[in-house]
Amino acid sequence: MRLERNATTQPRRPMRVFNNPDVLVCAWYVACRSEQLRSGAALSCDVGLQRLVVFRGESGRVHALDAYCPHLGADLGLGRVRGETIACSFHGWAYDGSGVCVDAPCGGSAPRRARLRAYDTEERYGLVWVYPEGEAPYRVLEVPDLEGQPVRVHRARPEDVPGHHHIHHLNGVDVHHLPFVHRFKVDLHEIGCLNTRSSERPDLLDTTTRVPATAGLMGRFMTWFAGTPLEVLTRFSDATSASVTLLHGARLFGGRFASPGLHYLIGYTPLPNGDTRLYITYLTRRRSGPLGALADGFLLRLTRFVLGHFRREDRELLAGIRVRPYSLTPADRPCIDFIEYANGLPISDWSRAVLPDETTSQVAPAQASATTNA
Length: 374
Ligand code: FES
Ligand SMILES: [Fe+2]
Fold this sequence. Notes:
Elements (H helix, E strand, L loop, with lengths): L28 E5 L8 E6 L2 E7 L5 E5 L13 E3 L2 E3 L6 E2 L5 E3 L14 E7 L2 E5 L19 E5 L3 E3 L3 H9 L4 H4 L10 E6 L6 E8 L4 H11 L3 E8 L3 E6 L4 E2 L4 E2 L3 E9 L5 E10 L3 H31 L13 H11 L28 E2 L1
Parallel strand pairs: 13-21
Antiparallel strand pairs: 1-10, 2-3, 3-4, 4-9, 5-6, 6-7, 7-8, 9-10, 11-20, 12-20, 13-14, 14-15, 15-16, 16-19, 17-18, 19-20
């Protein structure tokens, strides 16, 4: 059971989706790492309060089903993979990748109701992703600048972090914490943040942040190194996974070279206790030859170093935060946009049933939106 602090004096009225641990939207979630699922292996895993069995058939394909066997409820994560089916370890009933019971050894024929919900899966970046429906309307998010290109990746170790993944994403659009937490010597009014939605892909929110020249030695170095304003491009998918490109579109060393961009991709598993498992993948375009491999390695390490620096500075605040977004100001427009975007997403059947009057989608105050429709 989750206990609520300051429940009487600072009650937290849950929103429809944003920061609501009882609600899972239709989105790609990380089930596990690919290396945890060798050929013929099965694993039970939790995405929020939804327990799934994921298994790799002998063809190498990964399947995901609801975990509890329809017969007497055993967890199929303990079962055995045979071909493209998972056989329950309790009485041997076997289910194929679409959730149909294809064998009931000790019961004659299996009742027609003995069927499991099956879910879409994809393997990308060395991770197994699952979607709360049989067929996802789009595939797992890619870095926009690297779409369709061969990439070299480095995966950070998964990390359990406190709180809802929306709070971690909100930190990325909350540009006004930069001077206070990250000590950017910059005029707050000069930081630009523009959110863009696309009518073709309602799951996406693109955020472009522009930071002008900052004062001090570091500011002068960055102006020489990458020019100004510094641009960060973030693409959220279903307010769940996100791709981030630092030094987007910059010209390096006084404008001599185009920046390759520093890219990373974030995936999440909501945990049953309301916390989050975080998967960070660093990516760069794969360059050929030994020198190309060296350059790739350098860029991946640099990306990890920069992100690690900011995450260290954010960590203490994020660990103790409890967001009640009802006192925001017009200057918080990027945060309001993100919250409204999250609250408008379709809710999946992996959510705990929530009565409509328990929740709200409203963020006060209502102000003109900075969001544009592309
Ligand atoms: S509980 Fe699975 S076969 Fe009986
Ligand atoms: Fe931060």
